[in-house]
């Protein structure tokens, strides 16, 4: 099996209706695989990408994801802000986003975006995932 198949590339990403879908865009191979495994254990089908551009390309061809987890410092298309780009896609207006960062100066007023500092705390990311994706009540 190729590395691409193990990480959930396009050919391995079809999921039944009702299964939550996540996209993880992270340049660090170990962290990307760890996040994929963590989200799969939480019930998500996960597509992984090494760049924001690759994740955005994938998003244009599949059903709207239920969650996006991305490294805020990944190279993006023309330095386009990931949140703004995702929000401009009509079908992704409410898609929750978790940004992973080492930067101290990143903030947002968007209630469907969580900014988590690296190194990643497993309990913190699981809490953010559940807060952003589970229906109240």
Walk me through what this model shows:
The model is unreliable at 1-12 (pLDDT under 50). The chain has a five-stranded parallel beta sheet. It is built from five helices and five strands; from the N terminus they run H-E-H-E-H-E-H-E-E-H. It is α/β, with parallel strands linked by helices. The longest helix is centred in the N-terminal third of the chain and has 13 residues, at 29-41.
CATH class: Alpha Beta
How many domains? The number is 1
Full CATH superfamily name: Response regulator
Q: Please tally the helical runs, counting DSSP H or I stretches of 4 or more residues.
A: 5
Q: How confident overall, as mean pLDDT?
A: 79
User: How many E strands?
Assistant: 5
Summing up helix and strand content along with how strands pair, one would put the structural category as alpha/beta
User: Distance N terminus to C terminus?
Assistant: 41 Å
Order of helices and strands: HEHEHEHEEH
CATH topology value:
Rossmann fold
Rg for CA atoms: 14 Å
What key attributes describe this structure?
137 residues, Rossmann fold, globular
Condensed summary:
The protein is 32% helix and 20% strand.
Layout of secondary structure:
Elements: H1 3-6, E1 20-25, H2 29-41, E2 44-49, H3 52-59, E3 67-71, H4 82-88, E4 97-101, E5 113-117, H5 122-133
Parallel strand pairs: 1-2, 1-3, 3-4, 4-5
């Amino acid at each position: 099996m190729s590395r691409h198949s193990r990480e959930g590339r396009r050919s391995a990403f079809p999921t039944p209706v009702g299964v939550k879908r996540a996209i993880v865009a992270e340049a660090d191979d170990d962290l990307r695989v760890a996040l994929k495994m963590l989200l799969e254990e939480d019930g998500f089908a996960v597509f992984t990408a090494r760049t924001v551009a690759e994740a955005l390309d994938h998003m244009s061809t599949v059903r709207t994801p239920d969650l996006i987890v991305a490294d805020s410092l990944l190279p993006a298309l023309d330095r386009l802000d990931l949140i703004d780009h995702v929000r401009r896609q009509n079908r992704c207006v409410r898609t929750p986003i978790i940004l992973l960062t080492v930067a101290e100066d990143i903030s947002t007023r968007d209630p469907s975006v969580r900014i988590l500092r690296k190194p990643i705390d497993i309990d913190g990311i699981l809490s953010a995932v559940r807060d952003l994706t589970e229906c109240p009540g």
